[in-house]
Amino acid sequence: MTQATLLLTQEEIFERLDLDPDFSNLSLLNSLNQTASDFLLKRTGRDWGKAEFANTVGQNLAKNTAAYWVAMNFYNDDEHNYQKAIDYSIADLLDIIISEE
To answer: Angle 74-97-91 (CA atoms, 0-180°, nearest 5)?
Structure first.
């Protein structure tokens, strides 16, 4: 399977997770970012990280969805269960794609 273009920057992930600047497990963050981006590609059929979608409503929603996914899987607890928000966002992303056809 083709890897999706990363949706989030390292700075965005640090901000979303409220991490200290000295957090050192960057490989974990990169892996979560890649997996979130791949997840959205698989669910929507669109690589939202590509330059052609830069700063669009769809990409902004996809970035927010990826951030939810990263946080949910980073913390892996009930307080950070964003599954419903992710599901609703994916439905919105699919509606965006349909409206463009």
So the answer is: 50
HEC-encoded secondary structure of 6-44: CCCCHHHHHHHHCCCCCCCCHHHHHHHHHHHHHHHHHHH
At what angle are helices 26-44 and 57-75 packed, to 10 degrees? 130
Cα dihedral sign, 16-22-27-28:
negative
The alpha carbon of 75 is separated from its chain's Cα centroid by a whole number of angstroms, namely 15
Cα gap 5→101, rounded to integer Å: 22
Q: What is the DSSP string of 51-95?
A: GGGTT-HHHHHHHHHHHHHHHHHHH-SGGG--HHHHHHHHHHHHH
Distance CA 31, CA 22 (A): 18
Q: Which tens digit of pLDDT belongs to each residue from 8-59?
A: 999 999 999 999 999 999 999 999 999 999 999 999 999 999 999 999 999 9
